[in-house]
Amino acid sequence: MLHSLQLVTLVSILSVAYCDILPAQSLAAQFSLTTSTSIPFPTATQSSSDTQSFIVSNWSLSKGRIENGPDELAFVQDPFPNSTNIGVTPSNDSGPVLQVTYPQGSFSPDDGGAQLYSLWNTSDGSVFQSMIVTYEVAFDGGFDWVKGGKLPGLRGGPVVNGCDGGKQPNGSDCFSTRLMWRTNGAGEVYAYIPSPNGLCKENDIICNNDFGISIDRSSFSFTGGQWNRITLLVQLNNPPDIANGNLMMYYNDVQAIKQQNLQFRSSTVINAGGMFFSTFFGGNDSSWATPNTVHSYFRNIELWGSSEPSTLNGSKVNSASGLVKWRWGVTLAVVGLIFSIGL
Questions:
Q1: Which of 47, 296, 314, 331 has a Cα at 20 to 30 A from 88?
Q2: How far apart are CA 73 and CA 69, in angstroms?
């Protein structure tokens, strides 16, 4: 039996824990993201071919198609209807969930998992400069995380097939902010965005010249065999030459990542476009491959948006690094031309 002092201490701990819980709709209200939408799911399970037809017809896809892995998608019965992870209550909805298959040996979106870009086209033509995506994701029990893999996030910009797979942003084409799991389920935000003002020197930032930027790796961990809730907020920097972009990520409704000195764009042609549903093992070589055929599952996908960008303070972007890259690119082009004409 607990003594009175122990009981008070326990209540205090629980109160602090639950005070820190912030559901997606409360985060949206906090930042005045008043427009919202839910990604539709069918009322019954569907075969892979019917799932593809449903998604193409109802998810407002860029170019009207599923980019990668349509055959790896199916609406199935919820494998974990009684998940009780903190912040994720058991679902009262008996409807199906979206299953994604990662075949044995797959390590890219070309051979496992799936990718699609769901554009948020509002009836009033609203252009979003702040957006939240929230969803619940589950993995098979005993899921082997290997070295890592991608999970859905947000995307924007006029170039709808850039900012992933090593296609680096230039500030006026696109941005993407996905989630990643790493070894043992360690989580992070994985972004294709510019990296001005010494961003790559910060302790919680890991930059890769050929691929994306890891933000706050291992700040939380995914758990297999139950539902995990992800909520991701992106507020674009404004004006474009000020690094005041805001990124926040909540795991099971508790803040796990907060990064506020970001540049998502160098031009106002970039807005937040919608959900980048991207999930696969990898990675860019077989060392990332899944040793077994495994699955993830998704449900309760919602978005909130606002036409207002970040209003945080920020530093003016130092364009010197961009100029160096431009000059280096011109130099390589000239060298290539010389060799091609035999000078």
A1: 47
A2: 7
What is the rounded distance in angstroms from the CA atom of residue 43 to the CA atom of residue 60? 19
Cis status of the peptide bond prior to 239, with omega within 30 of 0: yes
Q: Residue 25 and residue 193: Cα distance in Å, rounded?
A: 26
Burial class of residue 281, CB neighbours in 10 A (0-12, 13-18, 19+): buried
d(CA 264, CA 83): 35
Give the amino acid at 42. P
Residue 38 has a pLDDT of 97
CB 112 within 8 Å of CB 289 = no
Q: What is the model's pLDDT at position 332?
A: 36
Q: What is the pLDDT of residue 126?
A: 83
Q: Could you count the other beta carbons within 10 Å of the beta carbon of residue 334? A: 10
Q: Is 29 helix (H, G, I), strand (E, B) or coil?
A: helix
- Residue 9's pLDDT is what? 41
Concatenating the DSSP letter of every residue in 145-177 gives: -TTEEEEEEEEESS-TT-SSTT----SSS-EEE
Strand partners, 188: 180
Q: Give the integer Cα–Cα distance in Å for 321 and 340.
A: 29
Q: Which residues have CB under 8 Å from 80's CB, separation 6+?
A: 138, 225, 226, 227, 297
Query: 3-state DSSP call for residue 123?
Result: coil
How far apart are alpha carbons 75 and 43 in whole angstroms? 10
- Assign 14 to helix, strand or coil: helix
Q: Is the peptide bond before 212 cis (omega within 30 degrees of 0)?
A: no
Residue whose C-alpha is closest to residue 103's, from 292, 298, 296? 292
Measure CA 227 to chain center: 17
Residue 4 pLDDT greater than 90, yes or no: no
- Please list, in sequence order, all residues whose beta carbon lies within 8 angstroms of the beta carbon of residue 322, skipping any fewer than 6 positions away: 171, 194, 196, 266
- Domains of the chain (ranges, CATH numbers): 19-335 (2.60.120.200)
Residue 283: per-residue pLDDT? 87
**Residue 213: closest CA among 245, 182, 178:** 178
